[in-house]
Every structure is written in structure tokens, then in C-alpha cells.
Design brief:
By secondary structure, the chain is of the alpha+beta class. The radius of gyration is 22 Å and the shape is globular. It is built from 11 helices and 16 strands. A 7-stranded mixed β-sheet has the order 9-16-11-15-12-13-14, with helices on both faces. It folds into 2 domains: 257 residues, L-amino peptidase D-ALA esterase/amidase, CATH 3.60.70.12; 121 residues, Ubiquitin-like (UB roll) (Roll), CATH 3.10.20.
């Protein structure tokens, strides 16, 4: 039921990255649920992780390993989140890293683990260990599409993006995959995302850029307002491009940052387009706010309102629900007479009341679309923010009610 989400692109291979997939049968026998990324020596890696205090064992271990060593492998499993599993979960994640490290003849600390799936169940590490040799044997440069499928959980379609830019006449490539469909309101990362570029860039700047592009992409999406225990986003630069290095004060930083941002926005929006049970892709844009915080408070209050989201599913131009959400967003001293609200290009609220020229037919015309923009002008300043969300359908409830059955 994905909204406007097409087939995967033809990924640019990233020299220095090889990917392999295998089946551990963690949740479903025969499903390709184990993915390994091999990062060549000399790669630079940055990452962001969930701020959920009940972070999963693999998040804890990946953070620790990243601070200790330069990563050489990433290992991802689906079907089990290994979250809420205490000391035993940490031991299972460590065993996974050690098993892959032995296969690659590297230190355990150079392996970063990632898991996604059901929370509260111990990772069946025996199954995962048995699958790792097949994943390593499968390592290849053109494994991006298989990785996109291999990291899926309730996703209905794999998600990926790729692009190529030129710097001083030399090509620089980017490729990435993401997964997520429910439990989506990221906080410093998305459900899972893995992106690589062949650019040359040092780690501190790479981490800074990752934080910037995550903030304007994965941190601007919401399906249901829930932040996962397992969110993680990894960005690797292999340094294999012949283009000049990207530096903080160099002339090429701007074009590199923009290419990276666009790729991250594509991956983030793909998660919304494939939100659990989604039938609508919705852009909520707040303009004329006094601060970024109040712009985001209003945007997220509207985007996460169950009443707004169910009206969107019904294609019902019940504009009063949007008005009510704006009013309860917590903006101090809000002057309702200064607010205008639009569905697409149709003004539904002006001067704090229903617009005089608004008709139900005009509103219905917008709500019947699969892609809708809700635009809110607060009349308080010059700050704008955009959040992307989906509707709530019967299928969302069914998927989450039956998730473990």
C-alpha cells in the first residue's frame, strides 16, 4: 500500500564496500534476514543512534565499538530487536560480533551490530552465527538491493537511493538503504539506515555532516510518534574517489552536503511512503513561526494527531481537527486571528476562522489526493519547518495488533 514508492534504483557501487546476505531463519524460515557490510581498510565511519533510554543491546555495543576502533564490518539481523534483554542480550550481540570478526580476521571491536524486530525476546544467536559464513561468502559490490530487502521488517517494499556528483571533474558516488514502517518518530536517527560514499573526508567532519542531514531528514518524519529502541544510522566514506577531499573550509563542502541531504531526505520520505497501512503521504509545513521549537511543536502535533490522521485516511476535509491540533500545540500567547491554514493551495482557515471563500468541494478535492500538503502560517516570525507523515488506516491497527501472532 506504499504511496508513490517506486522500484529500487540501479545503485552505484561504492568502491571499498561489499555486501552479503544470508538466511538465519530468525522469524521466518528461508527469509534473507542477515546482512553483512564489509568496509575496506581506510574507510571513515560516522553514526547516530536512538535516544530511547531503553536502547537495544546492539545499540549499546555499536556505540562502544565505534568509540574504540575503526569499523570493518556491519552486521544486521531482522526478526528480533534484541532490546529489553539485559545482560544476556549484550552477550548475544557480542557473540555475533566475535563470530563475524573471526570470519574476517579482524578484532571484535571493529564489528558494529544492528538488530530490528520484536522487542523483549533474546536474539537466537546460534542461528545468526550459522548464517554468517554464507553472508560472508556472498560479499559483493552490487549487494545494495539485496541489503535493502534483507533489512526489512513490516516494510512492504525495500527502500534505497543513489546519486552521482562531480567535484573538479571527478565523480563522487553515494548509495544508501533504509528500513522502517512503524514505531517511527526518530530521535537522532531512523529505524535503520546505511549510507556510503566514495568521497574522502575526515571523521569529525563526516560526523558533523551526518548530524546535520539526519536532523533535516530522518528527524522530520513520523508515522505514529514512537521512537524505537533500535534506531541507528551509519554513514561510511571510503575515500576511493579521485576527487579532492571534502574539508570544512574547502570549496566543495556545499555541493557534497546538498547531495548527501537530498539522498537522506529520499530515504526518510520512503519510510513515510511505506508507513504501516499508509494510503497518504502528507507534508505538514509550518511557516511564520517565532522559533524552530514552536514550528516543530505545531508540525508534530498536527502530524501525530490520531483525529487528523484518521480524517486523512477517510479523505474527509474535517479542517476543525487541524485547527484544534494547532491550538493545543503549546505555543504561548498564540494569536489565533493571525493564523492561516491551507490544504494544498486551498485556504481553509483565515483570521482564526473558516476562510470566507472556502467550500467543502475545494477541500474535498485536495483530500482525495494520495499526496497532501497541510500548510500553517502562524503569523509570528520568519521560521519555517517541515515534517512528513502518513495517515492512520485500519491496516495500521491490524499490523500492530497482530505483530507477534
Amino acid at each position: 500500500m506504499a504511496v508513490g514508492l517506486g522500484p529500487l534504483p540501479d545503485f552505484h557501487p561504492i568502491e571499498g564496500i561489499r555486501i552479503g546476505v544470508a538466511s538465519a531463519g530468525i522469524k521466518k524460515p528461508g527469509r534473507k534476514d542477515t546482512v553483512v557490510f564489509e568496509l575496506a581498510e581506510g574507510c571513515t565511519t560516522a553514526a547516530t543512534f536512538t535516544r530511547n533510554q531503553f536502547c537495544a543491546a546492539p545499540v549499546t555495543l555499536a556505540r562502544a565499538h565505534l568509540s574504540q576502533q575503526v569499523p570493518r564490518y556491519l552486521v544486521i539481523n531482522t526478526g528480533n530487536a534484541n532490546a529489553g534483554t539485559g545482560k544476556a542480550g549484550l552477550e548475544a550481540a557480542t557473540r555475533t560480533c566475535s563470530a563475524l570478526a573471526a570470519l574476517g580476521a579482524v578484532a571484535t571491536e571493529t564489528v558494529l551490530p544492528f538488530s530490528t524486530g520484536v522487542i523483549g525476546e533474546l536474539l537466537p544467536v546460534d542461528k545468526l552465527e550459522k548464517a554468517l559464513p554464507a553472508a560472508v561468502d556472498d560479499l559483493r559490490a552490487d549487494g545494495w538491493a539485496d541489503a535493502a530487502s534483507g533489512i526489512m521488517t513490516t516494510d512492504t517494499l525495500p527502500k534505497g537511493a543513489t546519486c552521482r556528483i562531480e567535484i573538479d571533474g571527478h565523480p563522487v558516488h553515494f548509495s544508501g538503504v533504509s528500513k522502517g514502517a512503524g514505531m517511527i518518530r526518530p530521535n537522532m536517527a531512523t529505524m535503520l539506515a546505511f549510507v556510503a560514499t566514495d568521497a574522502r573526508i575526515e571523521k569529525t567532519l563526516l560526523q558533523t555532516l551526518l548530524g546535520e542531514v539526519v536532523e533535516s531528514s530522518f528527524n522530520r518524519i513520523t508515522v505514529d510518534g514512537d521512537t524505537s529502541t533500535n534506531d541507528a544510522c551509519v554513514l561510511t566514506a571510503t575515500g576511493r574517489s579521485a576527487a579532492p577531499a571534502i574539508t570544512a573550509d574547502g570549496p566543495h563542502l556545499g555541493v557534497f552536503r546538498e547531495a548527501l541531504r537530498q539522498l537522506f531526505v529520499t530515504l526518510a520520505q520512503a519510510i513515510i511512503r511505506d508507513g504501516e497501512g499508509a494510503t497518504k503521504f502528507v507534508t505538514v509545513r509550518v511557516e511564520q513561526a517565532a522559533t524552530q521549537k514552536e514550528a516543530l511543536d505545531v508540525a508534530y502535533t498536527v502530524a501525530q494527531s490520531p483525529l487528523v490522521k484518521t480524517a486523512l485516511y477517510a479523505s474527509d476535509p474535517n479542517w476543525g481537527r487541524i485547527l484544534a491540533a494547532v491550538g493545543r500545540a503549546g505555543v504561548e500567547d498564540l494569536v489565533i486571528e493571525g493564523i492561516s491554514i491551507y490544504l494544498g493551495d486551498v485556504c481553509i482557515v483565515r483570521d482564526g476562522a473558516r476562510a470566507e471563500d472556502y467550500t467543502e468541494e475545494l477541500g474535498q478535492g485536495v483530500m482525495d489526493r494520495a499526496e497532501i500538503e497541510i500548510r500553517i502560517e502562524l503569523g509570528r516570525g520568519k521560521v519555517s519547518e517541515t515534517v512528513w507523515t502518513s495517515d492512520f488506516s485500519h491496516d495500521y491497527v491490524t499490523i500492530n495488533a497482530e505483530y507477534r501472532t
